[in-house]
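debug: dumping io for the single-chain case to check the tokenizer round-trip. Nothing else runs in this session.
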Amino acid sequence: MAPRPRALLAGLTVLSALACAAPASAAGDAAVAALQVGLRAKGVYAGTVDGVLGPETSEAVRKLQRRAGLAVDGVPGANTRAALGRYGRPGLGKRMLAGRVVGWDVAQLQFLLAWQGFPSGPLDGHFGPRTEAAVRRFQTWTGLAADGVVGPSTLSALRAAPPASPIPLDWPLDVPVTDLFGPRGNRFHTGIDFPAPTGTPVAAAGAGRVKYAGHLKGGWGLVVTIAHGSGVRTMYAHLSRIDVKLGAGVPAGARVGLVGATGRATGPHLHFEVRLRGAAIDPLTAPR
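debug: decoded output
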């Protein structure tokens, strides 16, 4: 076998070191999320890929251990990871990620990308076109070369704390929140949901200018998007009616539309998102 180029070996060494130092995300650990992805692939776990080693995940580990003839202790050690096959290896940082690879490290990557505001669809451990596209968007956002390859510089950027809103925002509805920003099943919920009766007025979370008002493909239904400055935009989805015009300036608290269930919605509610230069961020990070 031909020797590996020194640059590649050096890159892999740095990559591995960065991966070992990578912190847990806001709601869980990327390694536990990778475990959950592998358990899902083996058909022993149907819970949320949230990176939390709770009772449901531990029980799934025991099921896998019984199936594999291992000691049943609920601890995801080396033998348990080996029982996951390609979903149990390698750890993030052991190789450059590019092409159509599958593995534990890809699942870790997908989890970290989602918390940085660039979800790639299903958290499934497959480095397909959607994951590559999310990597490129993240690289562009952080000022890296958008080559779609996960090397030391991209992994280092993923170690940063998730972005937060630099400006204050108000709630668009004065009702309790249900679904929060974060994992949902094997996907990632990029906003928060406010359940309310159809026709409830929805208020602008801050002063700004309407950048979109109409039907949006992808299951969003009737949508209003407002630019607030500092790279921040808010989105109001599943509306039953839109009450603002494209290009109009709106003050904070102005009515932008009415709650509905247009698009893919199981019932009337407002799906509210905050984006910072295109990255989905947790609306709860906005000062109030």
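debug: round-trip ok. Confidence is low (pLDDT under 50) at residues 1-25.
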